[in-house]
């Protein structure tokens, strides 16, 4: 995924991705609409449940104004499934060169999960990914660690999406960092809130986050 790609531009403008675990496909459309009403227009459905691919299809069909991607992509087979379902982008928790090459061949904008200089090197040099997921952000050392591992690659202009421990209290601290293009927020729509179909709370969470970020 590059800064010049459509998704890269959208990330730079929105600065916030709702990261979600969904258990029922039928919750997908009202969930996406609640996020949009709150001002969040990018979402990542994680492949932690069997409902994710079907949920993505429904969102792409019924809520086309939402930029919807898939996370937790671990295999080439999943890359194919995600592309067939119409994902705008893909995300992984780690660096897998075979998966990244498959994503590139399929034209899927892709952000691998990085935590070390080696991860950045493989992702940028070998797989031509410019936007990278920094995961898990807080438990890996937060912004001090990110600044240290990004420094040797600064001339290549990598951009990062921190996820893991990012919340409403520290979100602006992350977004003020020049290495960060956007943040991933699992607090916007927790799994249990989605399961309870509490769309009002999700809309409110999104609106509060959007107001905080600006």
How would the blueprint of this fold be written?
Blueprint: H1 6-14, E1 16-20, H2 28-37, E2 42-46, H3 52-62, E3 67-71, H4 76-84, E4 90-91, H5 97-106, E5 110-111, E6 113-114, H6 117-126, E7 131-134, H7 142-150, E8 159-162, H8 171-175, E9 183-185, H9 191-195, H10 199-213
Parallel strand pairs: 1-2, 1-9, 2-3, 4-5, 6-7, 7-8
What keywords describe this structure?
single chain; 214 residues; alpha/beta; TIM Barrel; four-stranded parallel beta sheet; three-stranded parallel beta sheet; 10 helices; 9 strands
In short:
Helices cover 43% and strands 15% of the residues. It contains ten helices and nine strands.
What does this structure look like?
It is built from ten helices and nine strands. It is α/β, with parallel strands linked by helices and 214 residues long. It has one domain: Alpha-Beta Barrel (TIM Barrel). The strands form three sheets. The chain has a four-stranded parallel beta sheet with strand order 3-2-1-9. It has a three-stranded parallel beta sheet with strand order 6-7-8. A two-stranded parallel sheet has the order 4-5. The longest helix has 15 residues. It is globular, with a radius of gyration of 16 Å. The two termini are 25 Å apart. The relative contact order is 0.17.
